[in-house]
Amino acid sequence: MTVTDLESYEDALSVYDPVMGLEVHVELGTKTKMFCGCSTTLGADPNSQTCPTCLGLPGSLPVVNAIGIESAIKIGLALNCEIATWCRFARKNYFYPDMPKNFQTSQYDEPIAFNGYLDVVLEDGETFRVEIERAHMEEDTGKSLHVGGATGRIHGASHSLLDYNRAGIPLIEIVTKPIEGAGARAPEVAKAYVAELRELIKALEVSEARMEQGQMRCDVNLSLRPHGREKFGTRSETKNVNSLRSVERAARYEIMRHAAVLNSGGTIVQETRHFHEEDGSTTAGRIKDNAEDYRYFPEPDLVPIAPAREWVEELRAGLPELPRVRRDRLKSEWGISDHEMQSVLNAGAIDLITATIDEGAPSDQARKWWMGELARASNETGKELADLGVTPAQVARVTALVAEGSLNDKLARQVLEGVLAGEGGPDEVVEKRGLKVVSDEGALGAAVDQAIAANAAVADKIRGGNLAAAGALIGAVMKLTRGQADAKRVRELVLEKLGVQG
Ligand code: ADP
Ligand code: MG
Ligand code: ZN
After folding, report:
1. What is the CATH number of domain 441-497?
2. Which amino acid residue places its CA nearest to atom 10 of ligand 1?
3. Distance from CA of residue 197 to its chain's centroid?
4. Overall pTM > 0.90
5. Domain ranges of the chain
6. Nearest ligand to residue 289 Cα
7. Which H helix or E strand runs over 22?
8. How many CB atoms lie within 10 A of CB 426?
9. What's the CA-to-centroid distance between 100 and ligand 3, angstroms?
10. Which of 209, 370, 429, 478 is deepest in the core (most CB within 10 A)?
């Protein structure tokens, strides 16, 4: 990797305005591929999910996947797009070893959905409208695995392996219009847009949109133009950025790099770039082909798509509650601030919390455990909350045990710790670790007596009216019961035994 000159972010923005374009590819969660009946299940043996059509063998013919079309229309509608009354697939011709047909079946000048927008909420609560140029249908390519080199890249590899299981899996590509006017917040807008889009896709249940698994990937186009200039600068296109944080970093890096090149009198070449997770940098890929180099032409083997208006309206009426509306509703139901809701979203906890509430937990308790103890565990292990191995039902059970008084917060934390460690469900952990609030009044009374005897001076202070000193005795009782007492009840007992009014 070569060291690249960068302008400071502030200096770059004092001279230039960034213009961005985001292209997001979403792999649909259909059972079968876009143009054949092959399965799309992940993790199968290489090339076990292929057929003459997705291998591009002579004489094979594609048949379009109806769920693929339906999903594309749903996405278009949710993005406030117009839905084409008539559109076609097109062949995008280029050679690449992981694309066995030698062309990608895509859409070109006749996308299924166009002219929409998505409103995204920034961290300060302000709404920014990102305009959508188009959402079109296409298919994924296979995967190449370069073997024998140190980096997994083709350079230095002794040979390459090809797996066509992914070839032909339906993709929806969503392309924004140029995003102008975001200024220094351009990277934040990029991240917020991809985050909002991901929520939308998940709400529509057309894909799980897991970025870390490549089910959703973003190309970040970016150019700079001097303040006051109308004409766009030349863009770079950072490909396949696959986390929200990386989208933000890639945009930021490109702003600093473009500014350094332009300030030194250089010119930006229109090229693709690779993003590097380790240091947030980008490096040059290939010089970008023009559309004419792809020799796009209408796909002769597939009939045009003309979705009936009644069908489109039926799909529109059947759209689920969209993420923004749902967020606003939950925010008021839970009685939390914008800022608190933002933390819930950042933690990816909204569905887990709602599921925990559905299992019977009060909303403040559900939020407290997911955003507290479990968020901490997620930070420590680097795992997503959803992948920690604790279910909403288990968290709800813990809150129920606290509510009925068999656990206090401290014990509840230990129970969750046990569940996280794979010791079983909450009741099992309580059983195995012997975690239960000592609710046996006799045992508790004995512990209080013992603490008073051992701390005679403190007891005298309390008798003399210094109620603040009670903390020390309560602490002593908690120690004697290994934390397994209800602190409120202990306080009552201490005061009662010392003959003071609480
Ligand atoms: P390509 O097929 O070359 O990637 P697309 O039109 O599919 O082209 O996508 C280009 C993306 O970049 C779009 O989101 C578009 O709005 C955006 N864009 C176009 N020109 C510029 C520019 N000069 N600077 C920044 N973004 C741009
Ligand atoms: Mg592109
Ligand atoms: Zn197939």
Report:
1. 1.10.10
2. 21
3. 10
4. no
5. 3-314, 321-433, 441-497
6. 1
7. strand 16-27
8. 25
9. 11
10. 370
